[in-house]
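User: Last request for today: this protein with zinc ion, please.
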Amino acid sequence: MTEYQNEISRNMVCVCLTNGVEKWIEFERALSLIKWLQEQDGPQFIEYDGTVFNRSYIIGLCTRDDMEDKRLIKNGFYKCSFNYWHDNKENCGCLTDEEKEEEKRRYDEMCVRQTLKREEEDKERRLKREEAEKERQKNDPCYLFSDVK
Ligand SMILES: [Zn+2]
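Assistant: Here's the final one, the structure of the complex with zinc ion:
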């Protein structure tokens, strides 16, 4: 959750006006505005929280999520067909389910290969150590005698 989203609690809605003004009000209190907007022959103006709304200037009432989307788009992001946000400068690199499956399979394969390689290297190192130890013992006079009964 972004800071912006934290600032605006879940039960708020935004009245969006044609002049770009955005006024946040509590959802419960917005119901009367919605009712007013639905009235066919209702008054043209309504006073609300110290703001006079002209019904012709109201684009609509948006949820916090709508507004967050709007903010992201304004800041140069776009939502791809997979429902992820990307920077406008970035191509969507999202994978289909099949591609994800393939990616996972390849990754698992790589892990197995790496484990096998590591085991092989460990074995090689162990053999080399044993070899070196034998060589050392061969040249160690103390060792030569310690073995003699
Ligand atoms: Zn994408």
